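Protocol step 4 of 5: obtain the predicted structure for the target chain.
Materials: sequence only (see below). No template structures provided, no constraints applied. The aim of this step is simply to have a reference model before the mutagenesis design in step 5. Sequence pasted as it appears in the construct record:
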Amino acid sequence: IVKKGVGNGEIVRVTTLDSEKIDNVDVIKIDVEGAEFDVLSGAQNLIEKNKPVLIIELEERHHQGRKLADMLEEVMNYGYLPFSLSNNGKKISLGNRKGGVDVEILKNINNNNFIFMPIEN
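Step 4 output (structure tokens):
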């Protein structure tokens, strides 16, 4: 999809991760400027089977007013917990299964890349 005045209008093939018949995956990195949930939807079987770590760039500006906390919780529904990294590389927990996303901690996060770790059963 090309917005007026953006991009060169090249046609590209679009597919889903599930249709690619990938057998084993440990990590999925998603940075698709607003189509993150389309990618997740197209990888649902792969995610359920492999429970890979997800690294997703999420920005409110790409999601028509959706709040970041709501987007993080949507990814949590896949069976994941959200984290971020501090400037010194320390892992920061952003939520839990029972309480959802901690919006107070989220306010202090200065990047848009989030790490989602699968919930251990």
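Step 4 remarks: The mean pLDDT is 86. The beta strands are 27-30, 53-57, 80-85, 91-93, 95-96, 100-101, 113-118.
Proceed to step 5.
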